[in-house]
Specification:
There is one protein chain. By secondary structure, this protein is mainly α. The longest helix has 24 residues.
């Protein structure tokens, strides 16, 4: 955590003087402290150097201007992946293979137990019946495009 008083307040007071544009200097300093205390000393020092170099007025720079300088002074983020295309991974160990197989077997067993606990009607409930299909065919806006052929109706005993 940065020592904002030592890094920011002393330097800005030396350069810009006391903040004259605020009716409440204590609250002014508290806002700077709250906004800037989460950064490292080194990063805050680099950012303040940037602000002082770029700031053209005799008033104190805003917190927003300091935060933008912190973004500039911060090191670039680490890449999302450190893997290179030419890097090959070691094959899994026998223990890792056993663990994976044990998990797969457990999932299969759990699934089998759940399926076995269902009645035949429950197992078939997820499939549409002939009446469901016929209702979908009858209610489609493309009536006449779908439906049972004459041969299919004869096979089903409808004709």
């Amino acid at each position: 955590m940065a020592d904002v008083a030592a890094i920011v307040f002393e330097r800005f007071t030396n350069i810009y003087g006391e903040p004259k544009h605020t009716p409440n200097p204590e609250a002014f300093f508290e806002e700077y402290e709250r906004a800037l205390s989460g950064y490292s000393d080194a990063l805050l020092r680099r950012a303040i150097d940037l602000v002082i170099a770029e700031h053209a007025f005799t008033t104190w720079p805003t917190i927003g201007k300091i935060c933008k300088a912190i973004e500039k002074a911060a090191p670039p983020p680490a890449p999302l992946s450190t893997f290179k295309d030419d890097v090959t991974m070691a094959p899994p160990s026998p223990i890792a293979k056993e663990n994976v197989q044990r998990l797969v077997d457990q999932v299969k067993a759990d699934f089998s137990l759940r399926e076995a606990a269902k009645t035949p009607a429950e197992r078939m409930a997820k499939y549409p019946t002939r009446d469901d299909w016929q209702r979908m065919i009858d209610e489609t806006p493309n009536a006449g495009l779908h439906g049972l052929t004459e041969r299919s109706r004869r096979m089903m005993g409808d004709e």
